């Protein structure tokens, strides 16, 4: 139930976008261009997306007011459009904003043109009732080249376009075309925004190469959607950052658990043992989530019990989060939507090598082990690894969780489900994990590199599947499924380019190291993994568990933001989301004295990140001009998460927890020396002295372990004591 609004709370800032699509052309919400390309920029801007197929029931037109806006992206007029167009004639009048990518959905050469006029007219445009098929001689005139050639320019041969002209005085035209004289001359708007929405004509918003599976934005989707859907500055929930630092998390699937490799001494060792020694034990300051597929330990279906104790040993370590990833490891989840056991057995039979005189079949009858082996995938030629028994969703979820819980330390439990293979589970499968109280993650296969040179290839936070949502991993694992195939080593190396591209010029994602256990058995891949771990260990990141990230992605859509006055907002129902971001914030900062529950702030580029206090609900965010000289001590960044902050004239106190050394950097502390003490319960763990410089920067590092929360006190040792932390 939503938290009660505080006395200062005003109108709620709408964050939800209503995305409409034609299910006849795009079969499911997750297959739409809105989901594949637009939802990531919208998430970055703090928006969530709700999908509706126009062939089904649409909300009452009066309900559109609750959305931040309506978004359509039709490649062509829908064949079944009568009900949608009838609905849109009313809905466009009540919607806050209406954004059209591609066509309006109403052919201008039919009687539906009146509805198309209404949609364009609301934005501030007018259709001229003609299209240009032969585009030779058309010239592009861009008034904002950086916003209309974001990742490249249109192809030399321009696409067919409909002629649309400006009709509103407040229309902001970003790009228009100069028509050839043979077509009567004049101009046609291709990209424009207004206080009521936005428009980007088909072929001028994005370029797709369907054959190669590539795409690149022509318009700047961040600037376009921000201008088209937002009234002005507002705080945006952010899941890339905690305590002012980029989030780091790592998760591993158990595929390869039974693999054996040779050491340099020519000794055989299980990959799981290698993982324990070279990754887990070697980097105790970095959390890692390890997911078990219980079938790997089940000899009755082709697994092996040998690694069972190693799994226990791995999961027992404090930095390791146990998780589960199905029982028989499906590779192609859609195969099981309309499951046919007969079809599955046919696949096994088709891959069975033919034998002379039926010897293979005779061997199968004599040796049960040989028969079992035939039903175990050697690679990914089957829909799942273990096929001896029919697929059973209950076994994949409930039974798998039961086995994992028996192996995991009782104090930890198992709270996360990691999807395997193509990670495209059905609505029923996701619901089954949710009913068990499990978070879930995987899928998305993010790439932003020399081959996939666009933010269009970064997935959003979640995948919509009916009424369910699947949390995407931030990075794909080491074995590509849908994008261009690369070896495990090349895939892992390619992550570096994606990490850099998603950090600059804007932070779009967390740092996610994701791979299969089998990769550890490859010496070159293991070397790459160790390199990332050393980098994460020494970088200004904040390491968290994978389950904590999955909770962030889940809670993102639930955050409520309400206006509480001029440049003031009340933020509630945050769950685990403890960072807000303002873009283009060079001239503003948080007023920590006037805010409630804001621990501190930091800048990265033109963005301002605010760290919130998880113990305060709701929080109040107040902004001020950066020139204001009044200051209150605040957190700039830390490796641990901070909460329960209290300030007074003597200093400040807070709770904190995290992995590795507790690095803290504070700003606006009165210059001088401070005593820092760290307690867990009543026991003193560490104490030291820190000094704030002349501009109020104070830093210290707590060497004590922070996996269990500690209480930290920073007390002024200044002789004058004048003003303490308030000045």
**Low confidence ranges:** 1-5, 355-367
Q: How many runs of DSSP E, i.e. beta strands?
A: 40
Q: Find the structural class using helix and strand composition.
A: alpha+beta
Largest sheet, in brief, is: 8 strands, mixed
Cα(first) to Cα(last) distance is 39 Å
Mean pLDDT: 93
Biggest sheet strand order reads 2-1-3-4-10-9-8-6
Work out the radius of gyration. 28 Å
Beta-strand proportion: 25-35%
- How helix-rich are the residues, as a percent range? 10-25%
What would your notes on this structure say?
The chain has 727 residues and is α+β, with helices and mostly antiparallel strands. Helices cover 22% and strands 29% of the residues. The chain has 15 helices and 40 strands. The strands form 11 sheets. It has an 8-stranded mixed β-sheet with strand order 2-1-3-4-10-9-8-6, with helices on both faces. Strands 14, 15, 18, 19, 24 and 25 form a 6-stranded mixed β-sheet that branches. The two termini are 39 Å apart. The model is unreliable at 1-5 and 355-367 (pLDDT under 50).
Write a brief caption for the model:
The protein is an alpha+beta fold and 727 residues long.
Features:
727 residues; alpha+beta; eight-stranded mixed β-sheet; six-stranded mixed β-sheet
């Amino acid at each position: 139930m939503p938290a009660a609004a505080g006395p200062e709370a005003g109108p709620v800032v709408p964050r939800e976008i209503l995305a409409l699509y034609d299910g006849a052309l795009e079969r499911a919400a997750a297959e739409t261009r809105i989901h594949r390309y637009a939802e990531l920029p919208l998430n970055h801007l703090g928006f969530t997306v709700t999908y509706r197929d126009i062939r089904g029931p649409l909300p009452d037109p009066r309900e559109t007011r609750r959305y931040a806006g309506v978004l359509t992206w039709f490649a062509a007029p829908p064949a079944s459009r009568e009900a949608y167009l009838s609905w849109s004639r009313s809905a466009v009048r009540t919607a806050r904003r209406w954004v059209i990518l591609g066509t309006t959905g109403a052919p201008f050469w039919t009687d539906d043109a009146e509805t198309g006029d209404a949609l364009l007219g609301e934005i501030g445009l007018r259709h001229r009732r003609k299209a240009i098929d032969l585009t030779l001689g058309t010239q592009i005139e861009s008034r904002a080249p950086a916003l209309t050639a974001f990742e490249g320019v249109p192809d030399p041969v321009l696409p067919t376009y409909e002629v649309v002209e400006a009709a509103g005085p407040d229309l902001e035209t970003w790009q228009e075309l100069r028509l050839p004289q043979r077509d009567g001359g004049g101009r046609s708007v291709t990209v424009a925004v207004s206080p009521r929405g936005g428009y980007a004509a088909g072929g001028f918003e994005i370029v797709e190469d369907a054959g190669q599976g590539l795409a690149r934005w022509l318009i700047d989707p961040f600037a376009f959607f921000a201008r088209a859907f937002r009234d002005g500055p507002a705080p945006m929930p952010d899941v890339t950052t905690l305590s002012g630092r980029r989030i780091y998390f790592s998760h591993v699937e158990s595929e390869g658990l039974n693999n054996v490799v040779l050491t340099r001494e020519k000794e055989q060792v299980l990959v799981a043992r290698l993982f324990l020694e070279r990754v887990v034990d070697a980097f105790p300051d970095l959390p890692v989530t390890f997911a078990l597929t219980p079938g790997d330990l089940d000899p009755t279906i082709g697994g092996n019990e040998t690694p069972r104790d190693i799994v226990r040993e791995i999961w027992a370590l404090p930095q390791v989060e146990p998780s589960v990833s199905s029982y028989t490891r499906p590779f192609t989840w859609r195969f099981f939507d309309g499951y046919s056991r007969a079809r599955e057995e046919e696949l096994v039979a088709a891959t069975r090598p033919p034998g002379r005189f039926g010897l293979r079949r005779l061997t199968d009858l004599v040796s049960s082990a040989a028969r079992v082996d035939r039903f175990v995938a050697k690679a990914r030629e089957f829909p799942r690894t273990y096929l001896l028994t029919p697929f059973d969703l209950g076994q994949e979820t409930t039974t798998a969780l039961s086995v994992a819980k028996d192996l995991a330390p009782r104090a930890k439990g198992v709270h996360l489900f990691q999807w395997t293979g193509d990670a495209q589970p059905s609505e029923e499968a996701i619901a089954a994990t949710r009913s068990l109280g499990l978070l879930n993650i995987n899928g998305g296969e993010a790439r932003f590199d020399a081959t996939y040179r666009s933010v269009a290839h970064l997935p959003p936070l979640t995948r919509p599947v009916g009424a369910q949502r699947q949390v995407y991993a931030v990075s794909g694992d080491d074995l590509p499924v849908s994008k261009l195939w690369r070896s495990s080593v090349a895939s892992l190396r390619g992550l570096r380019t994606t990490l850099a591209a998603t950090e600059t010029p804007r932070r779009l994602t967390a740092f996610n190291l994701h791979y299969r256990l089998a990769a550890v058995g490859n010496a070159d891949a293991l070397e790459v993994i160790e390199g990332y771990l050393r980098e994460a260990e020494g970088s200004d990141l904040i390491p968290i568990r994978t389950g904590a990230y999955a909770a962030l992605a889940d809670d993102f859509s639930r955050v409520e933001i309400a206006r509480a006055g001029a440049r003031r907002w009340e933020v509630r129902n945050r769950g685990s989301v403890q960072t807000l971001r303002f873009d283009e914030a060079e001239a503003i900062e948080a007023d920590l004295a006037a805010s409630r529950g804001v621990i501190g702030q930091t800048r990265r580029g033109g963005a301002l990140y605010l760290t919130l206090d998880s113990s305060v609900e709701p929080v109040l965010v107040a902004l001020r001009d950066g020139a204001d000289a009044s200051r209150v001590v605040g957190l700039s960044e830390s490796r641990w998460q901070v909460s329960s902050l209290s300030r007074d004239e003597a200093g400040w106190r807070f709770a904190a927890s995290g992995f590795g050394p507790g690095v803290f950097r504070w700003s606006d502390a009165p210059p001088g020396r401070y005593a820092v003490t760290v307690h867990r319960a009543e026991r003193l763990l560490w104490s030291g002295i820190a000094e704030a410089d002349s501009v109020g920067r104070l830093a210290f590092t707590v060497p004590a372990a922070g996996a269990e929360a500690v209480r930290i006190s920073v007390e002024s040792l200044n002789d004058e004591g004048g003003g303490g932390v308030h000045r």
